[in-house]
Amino acid sequence: MIIGAGPIVIGQACEFDYSGAQACKALKEEGYKVILVNSNPATIMTDPEMADSTYIEPLELNTLENIICKEKPDALMSTMGGQTALNLSIELEEKQILKKYSIELIGAKSSVIEKAENRQLFKKSMKKIGLNTPKGIIIKNFKEAKHALKRIGFPVIIRPSYTLGGAGGGAAKNNKEFEIIVKKGLSLSPISEVLIEESVIGWKEYEMEVVRDKKDNCIIVCSIENIDPMGVHTGDSVTVAPALTLTDKEYQKMRLDSIKVLKEIGVETGGSNVQFAINPKNGKSIVIEMNPRVSRSSALASKATGFPIARIAAKLAVGYTLDELKNDITIVTPASFEPSIDYIVTKIPRFTFEKFDRTDKSLGTSMKSIGECMAIGRNFKESFQKAIRSLEIGLSGFETIEDYKNKSKLKLLEQLKVNFPNKFLLIAECLRKNISIQKVCKISGFDFWYVNQIKEIVEIENQIKNSKMTKDLYIKLKSEGFSDKRIIQLSKNSEKEIKRLKKKLKIRPHFRNIDTCSAEFPSKTPYLYSSYSNLDSSPHYEEESKVSARKKVIIIGGGPNRIGQGIEFDYCCVHAAYALKELNIESIMINCNPETVSTDFDTSDRLYFEPLDNESVIEICKAEKTNGNLIGVIVQLGGQTPLKLAKFLIENNIKILGTSFDSIDLAEDRNRFKKLISELDLNQPENFIINNPSEAKKILKKIQFPVVVRPSYVLGGRAMKIIYNSKELNSYLKSKIFENKNSILIDKFLNDAKEVDVDAISDGKEVFVCGILEHIEEAGIHSGDSACSLPPLTLTSKNIKYIKAATKKIATKLRIKGFINIQFAIKDNQIFIIEVNPRASRTIPFIAKSIGVPLAKIATKVMLGKSLKNLSVKNKKLNHVTIKESVFPFDRFPREDIVLGPEMKSTGEVMGIDSNYPMAFVKSQISSGNYLPEKGNVFISVKDEDKENIILMAQILISLNFKLIGTIGTANFLKKYSIEVKIINKVNEGKPHIVGLIESKKIDLIINTTQDSQSLKDSHSIRRAAIRYKVPYVTTIAAAKLAITGINIMKNKKFEVQSIQEYYKL
What we know:
The chain is 36% helix and 19% strand. Strands 14-13-10-11-12-15-16 form a seven-stranded antiparallel sheet, with helices on both faces. A seven-stranded antiparallel sheet has the order 31-30-27-28-29-32-33. A six-stranded mixed sheet has the order 17-18-21-20-19-22, sandwiched between helices. The longest helix has 19 residues, at 448-466.
């Protein structure tokens, strides 16, 4: 049995889909029956083919015991689902559940997990083998913390036990920070334990990825160096592999020390990650921590070297030794052959602070990044500049961003003291202003070698500005990682001149293999990266990875994870590769995300680890066209990233498979889309299209508030907002919203409307409606954030018939070939079209798991000319209900408001599945961490139009033995109906108030609906307190109804568990 990691959250992302999927495949190869438990439907690992029995169920003790009782596994693998799986495995062991059912814990024994994760035991273990750790004291409460502080002194690092991504931790420089962080850490640690540790902020940080087998064979897969100094969580730091600033002596010591750590902690088999810090002043080395499992760094090390750590770890866990296993990349070498690499890998984290404008953007020991990108080059400059392009934040290299323009040296140096995302851009700006390398190093804590490399890039920039472009200069620039776009920005050359130069001189990138062995043995898996280094002395392709003569298709991936574009799109890209294999067509994947299944060595026939920009993608297309038949490129599965490349590909005579670019533009361009809906005689909310602020002023008098503003060509509802008055609209229009020169749609907001999402596949003639999802929340919340149900809960058969007909009308008119997603709103029995997306949506994996149909595979085959009729696609009658619920990062960003709107803020999703709606909803809530209470106090405060709806709910809560507490308006209203409610003050009315009750843990559920921007402000402190103290919170009447029904069901019915394979047979 394998426990997955659950939903994508900060600190635990899709790297565990990669590890779980690899483990499932590896174990099935060996003839084991694999039972998988995971609550995340957006993963490849929860595909029904991946395990023999797949349970998409809550990851909590009772559910796991029910599954264990039913399936009777012989062993439990604890190391493939991140911190979640590790913590649950320990809990199962401590509660004697594993012993009760005679289950062996494999991968890492409970004693190993405890020694690695328990801060005190880990320190003792390190002392025993003569390795230093930072001076620290374990505490269990705040009183003990104050005593520890007296002994250690400021600054201190606070590290809670058994949390992921450094959650609840931080650095404290004063008493106020210390109290806040310690109390949060104690509340987040499942064993209420925190380590107070001396600060090593500013030291250099390294990681060693180690694999060990039962015969004590150990190998170092990869060394990783953090460019950011200690004090920034390794997940938020820019990292390079291999480590570049260690002497050979230092590296060998660290190598031996990491193996000593593994042996002492007792890791018998599998992969582990050991983290070290080195004092740059005297070279003193200390051990920070170790993870006795496959980790985020394991995924990076796997993709950096080509060595499949999770796959090998799974086989070691069932008894193999490293020398008995083959290296899957070379086939001829054993897995005990330690990987070596002859290139540089750079990872840069991807942040989404633009979604959270109230959040402190400074970085610390608690992780804040959502995803990451990775790039490969023959030297550091090439690798680093490719990684910057791969971030997809509009940079083509070390550009001067808006924040640094016209800043004085003094202000730049002041900023340099703070750790924040992409600090390397600030360092480059300081060097442009002639601030010395020594000064930059002293203030930033960055190593001299890296700052000097950035200095050399800045000097080359000056050379570009002052030199005429020649062949030698151009090749030098390319070998140092400069993109054509950056060269054009810096030089006096136009885009046409650079194109002409490349064509005339036949300058093209060469493609090299990632082969685990520095070209000592031939690579059997074409896993490639581009480079302009040594063009004269190296072949265009290495012999074993030459372009084939086969029919082929290129799939463009989604790039780094971010809010709005996550694992769901990677899922679709992976299924496209599977479909192409079934059609005997060569699949070629282009992506730059090291966390995903799409960048696994065995997902596609050829993998290019490259930036997803015009330059890189077109070079790959040109290279692949030199032999065989490039049928075309798939752009509709990877989210908005590939769609943005569609126009450029068309202009360069590369065929787009499926829906044409014109149809994509017709759906994405707000002007054209408005006309289309009018032509089809379908309803749209009253709306206006504006192209600049002056047009907006002209229509202000015509607008009836509230309205929704929607820019063109965005994903995840970026910059979408509900506006309540002209002052808010003016403020919105003063932002940089018109910078991309696309139009903005201003829609009349349909208050209290019901929203519906539809996903469909069209082959140009027929349309297959995959699923109609009814949102549980009212319209106005982004579809990616809203809970939704399949089949729809309250839609009439007439509604469903109309929605299906409208979907077919739109898909046919747009000449869709492949996926289409349409969002509808229903108000006063009228159905409105809100939005059309001519691509895969993020709900495709959820619907595919709900109905048991591989939708992305079918859509891919349709894009390649297969008809829906030939593919025998039919709707199945469902005998079960599925609920999708979203997961949010508000615990990481406590200043943010948890009230949702049209801009997406969730990082991941879970699925609740059952034979009835309320139980499916309860499961979805438990899986998302929103545990519904079975007793206690319920706080109710609702807007005026919801007061009638709350009467029956309040009566049900009282009948379930809950006590009600409300603000004066809601309480007095309910008292009219003889409902007993205790009145409590709002915060601005003075103490005792509702936030005080939440803080003293006297509130167990909050029902709070808001009306306008003022009521949102008034209740903000309530929502912040709810996040901090983990009180379940509902902000819509629809969600409140389901929550209360769910509580009723929970009290009267036991959980049932069935695998999705069993649900499909019903």
